[in-house]
Amino acid sequence: MNNPYSTASNSTREGATRVFEDNLNWLKGKHGISAGLSFTQARVWYVQQQFVPTISFGIATGDPADSMFTTANFPGASSTDLTNARNLYAVLTGRITAITRNARIGTDGTNYVILGPSRQEGRMPEWGMYLQDSWRVRPNLTVNAGLRYALQMPFYAVNNSYSTADMAAVMGITGLGSDFVVGSAGSHLGNLFKPGTIQGQVPTFTMLTANTHGYNVDKNNLAPSVGVAWTVGADSGLLHKILGAPGDSVLRGGYSVAFLRPGTSDFLGVYGSLPGLSIDASRNQTNGNLGTPPVLLSGSDLSAPGIALTRTYPMKVPTPSTNIYAFDPNIQVPYSTSFTVGLQRALTKTLMVEARYVHTTSVGAWTNSSSNFQGYVNYNEVNVIENNFASEFRVAQANLQANIAGGKGNTFAYTGAAGTKPLPILLAFLNGVNAASSGDTSKYTGTGWTNTTLVQYMFPNNPNVLSAASNIRGNATYKANGLTAGLPANFFVANPDVNTSYVQTNGPSTHYNGVQLVLTRRFAQGLQVNANYSFGKAYQGMLYSLHKPYVDIEQSYSTSISNGPVNHTFVANWVYELPFGQGKPFGGNVGRGLNRLIGNWSWSGTARFQSGQRRDLGNVNLVGFTADELSGLYQTRMVTDPANQYRTLVYMLPQDVIDNTIKAFSVTATGYSSLGAPSGRYIAPANSATCMETASNSYGDCGLRSVIITGPRIVHFDMSVVKEVAIVRQLTFRFEAMVFNVFNNLNLSPNSYTGATPDSFQITGAMDQSRTMQLAFRITW
Questions:
Q1: What is the mean pLDDT of residues 647-656?
Q2: Which of 78, 234, 244, 507 gives 239 a disulfide partner, CB atoms 3.0 to 4.6 angstroms apart?
């Protein structure tokens, strides 16, 4: 078997919605009044369980059998051969290195059960009421106006399974501080980015007891709506030429607000990610409870370890890799607004055109995504500014160059060589020595100063101070050294006792503006056609760093040709009944037998032309061209594979741009790689010898932050032919041949890669399928 897969666990989930509605309609003169009440309850339960333990075979540290696997006993064996022999021997003899189990919390919320199930269960009720009036002001003017009020109650748990965390736990030992506003960026940050300020406590978790709201009630959810339809026209003059005769044109406009109901995953993503639902009940050498090697499948003790199976609160953070998730206590119900205005004009009895403008805005959306900002804010953002680490990093870069020039090798230590200077912060983390001794070159010892990863972050043409800080922060030894040397525990992050501190809050707004043109031919003389063109742009608010305010970027979009936002789209669909058979222009008088052959044929199809996919190259620099010029270069280019003349390779950029981009990203401790320095036109890293990004997620102080380009246009046709045959009066046979992507257009998926790997510039995927045909048969009686 290749790549066998097994699982010892199962999960079961159900999301259900119960809705009660009562509506009243009242017609009174020119008014059509509607009113109603509604109650909606979203319900979810989620059961998880590991049914059986899993066993890992191998030779554990201290197993006497390990001494057998040497080249003396296996002459000519490589290290890979010896590893394979160890593994095979371990399986054949049943030697165990780990027995993995978990224990999950019972429904009482207090006791764990080894290999038992956990049940998470929650509810979210919503009350709503509305009043609407459809007012026929005049025969040619109708106004619809209404108001809806929605009281969306907070999510609550039905049992005691969940743990919860508050904002104090999010900020940990640093504390919230004054002027702290959840979700704010660039200001109102309280104690954030204040290393050395210790006003909080080590974070702990508490129980989210049954029927306890997860956040405060948002009560100001009034949603108005108004729409107007005005039939216009003129008997003569310029207005007649534009609008036609009275009744030929309709002017429509509308505005509405609609509140959104978050999905149950928004709650499971927060509470289900916190510790407390399960604990580790494994036996292994890391936990120190495996037993004396060898532990054998055939006769050793394989039972569960003796661990505490009672859950107590307040609960400590299990490990430094734990993530905190919390709700903004004042999170608001997200909503959207939409505005549209348009003019519809009848050209003939069967033909109509319409032009309309559309604007939509989404406000305060919740999205379970920790990338950039789409609902979650990470308050454990790495800081290199206020603690002066970025400044010292530049000194370390200079030390590296001076040591290389002085023959000291790839080290950034203060060696006393000309051009090197003391590094008190790095000395504290790498050696545990305080700042008072940073001028002593003898203190700069150990392998940390030549650590390949840290040295690479200091390369002059692409420095990365944020990654260097994250590397040091994630190293337990370095963290302990920093404390020993007197650096504050919150030197890099506000909450050093956890990995990340995510808060679910309201995201920034997204908005879309578009113009739509529609041509409609109603079904007549056997032909129906609908065609529309739209031009629009969408922008999304993003948070790159809490140091900076929110910014709007133009959205890119997914790989599906049917998804947006897309700048230009033209779509047409049609149905045409072929003019053959009884009652048609050709063969209208044929008999039933011949009509079964030539009659009741129809041809239909859909055509789509749209501008290409938008791709975000991220925070880079452009050399030799602008972003607009780069979009012109971003076109499909096919070349013969030099290694296989029968194979075609596809790229989206000219070869000189690719070659020089690879050079720009191929950096070394002294400059560029053996490929040489880039020249001409190319894409370069945002960081350089003269500028270095210091805000998380590459804010764009050095690069362009978000370089969005558009790929080649997309063309797609689907068509079908249908034949219906009336066999007897109540029996009809229908045959349909459907062909997708009729002309077999190759709509490739452009990539957005920039870097030093040549193969990554190659396009290997398509957005839609190749030409496909399917046949369908249907009998109706």
A1: 92
A2: 234
* Sign of the CA dihedral running 404, 410, 416, 420: positive
Name the token pair of 197: 């300020």
Q: Are 453 and 663 within 8 A, CB to CB?
A: no
Q: Please give the angle made by the CA atoms of 126, 129 and 134, to the nearest 5 degrees.
A: 145
User: How many whole angstroms separate alpha carbon 656 and alpha carbon 337?
Assistant: 47
d(CA 699, CA 705): 6
424-431 and 476-484 helices cross at what angle (nearest 10)? 120
Q: What is the DSSP secondary structure assignment for residue 332, as one 8-state letter?
A: P
Q: Is 588 helix (H, G, I), strand (E, B) or coil?
A: coil
The span from the CA of 662 to the CA of 675, in Å, is 9
Say whether pLDDT at 374 is over 70: no
Pairing of strands 95-100, 295-296: antiparallel
Cis ω for the linkage preceding 508 (within 30 of 0)? no
| pLDDT higher than threshold 90 for residue 764 | no
- Residue ranges in 634-749 assigned as alpha helix (H): 655-665
State the DSSP H helix or E strand holding residue 88, giving kind and residue range, or none if neither.
helix 79-93
Q: What pTM value is reported for the model?
A: 0.85
Is residue 736 a contact partner of residue 623, using CB atoms and an 8 Å limit? no
* DSSP sequence for 514-560: EEEEEEEEEEETTEEEEEEEEEEEEEEEE-S-TTS--EEEE----S-
- How many whole angstroms separate alpha carbon 404 and alpha carbon 502? 42
Residue with the two structure tokens 């969306």: 152
The percent helix, strand, coil of the chain (3-state, each to 5) is: 15, 40, 45
Sign for the CA dihedral angle at 630, 633, 636, 640 comes to negative
Which residues have a Cβ under 8 Å from the Cβ of 78 and sit 6 or more positions away? none
Cα–Cα nearest to 528, from 573, 586, 585, 569: 573
Between CA 448 and CA 264 the distance in angstroms is: 46
CA within 13 Å, CB half, 306: 2
Per the CB < 8 A criterion, the answer to whether 313 and 198 are in contact is: no
Per the CB < 8 A criterion, the answer to whether 314 and 258 are in contact is: no
What gap in Å lies between CA 666 and CA 538, rounded to an integer?
35
429, 446 contact by CB (below 8 A): no
Name the amino acid, one letter, at 571.
V
Q: Which pairing describes strands 671-672 and 682-685: parallel, antiparallel, or unpaired?
A: unpaired
Spatial separation of the C-alpha atoms in residues 747 and 478, rounded to whole Å: 50
Q: For residue 370, is pLDDT > 80?
A: no
* Token output for 70: 């040497």
3-state secondary structure of 119: strand
**What is the predicted pLDDT for the residue at 375?**
60
Task: Give kind and range of the element (H or E) at residue 240.
Answer: helix 237-243
Bridge partners, 514 (sequence order)? 358, 536
How many CB atoms neighbour CB 17 within 10 A? 13
What does the alpha-carbon distance between residue 85 and residue 343 come to, in Å, rounded to a whole number? Answer: 78
SS3 label, residue 449: helix
DSSP letter (8 states) at residue 381 = -
Per-residue tokens: 456: 């690479």
Which amino acid type is present at position 293? P
Rounded CA-CA distance 150/124 in Å is 13
Among candidate residues 499, 498, 446, 452, the one with its CA nearest the CA of residue 477: 446
Alpha carbon dihedral 377, 379, 382, 386, in 10-degree steps, equals: 120
Distance between CA 67 and CA 57 in Å, rounded? 17
221-241, pLDDT tens digit by residue? 999 999 999 999 998 999 988
Mark residue 458 as left, alpha or beta (left: phi above 0; alpha: psi -120 to 50; beta: remaining). Answer: alpha
- Locate 320 and state its tokens: 């430094």
Phi, psi dihedrals of residue 164, rounded to the nearest 5°: -145, 160
Per the listing, tokens 């203060």 go with 414
What region, left, alpha or beta, does residue 107 occupy, with left being phi > 0 and alpha being psi -120 to 50 degrees? alpha
Average pLDDT, the chain: 92
